[in-house]
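FORM 7B: Structural annotation worksheet

SECTION A. Query
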Amino acid sequence: MLLIACVILIFGVVLFRSISGSKEQLATLQATEQELSEQLAEQEERSAALEEQRVYVKTKAYVEEAAKKIGLIYPNEVIFKPAE
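SECTION B. Predicted structure
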């Protein structure tokens, strides 16, 4: 009878440790899931911004803006500079 009680007690301790470890692992995995969900949301926002930029780069307005940055102008365009 004592042997059976010891076996049941040992089984109970092992089971308790296993459950305790599983709860810790679950908490860690839930924290990781939350972090990954936040990263996913950030990456989706970034993806949307990059898609908007990709569409904008194909427009005439972007080409004109880029050309003006390097000093190009239309043939009939006059640039006025403020007097110093």
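SECTION C. Observations
DSSP finds two helices and no strands in the chain. The chain has a mean pLDDT of 90.

SECTION D. Sign-off
Analyst initials: ____
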